[in-house]
Predict the structure of Spo0E family sporulation regulatory protein-aspartic acid phosphatase.
Amino acid sequence: MQNKKIEILLKTIELLKAELAQLIDEVAELTNPEVVKKSQELDRILIEYYKLLKSTNKENT
């Protein structure tokens, strides 16, 4: 179950990174509200991913 969640989070991270890169290319402004929103969403997903990895690591040791 946790492996599936990790896979989903990794796919979400890749998608958000691509969307963020595209937004930055399109608007060339890091202060654009959409860029800020995507950046915050990516931060949230990365934190969730690393917490899940940490808990999975503790369970396996």
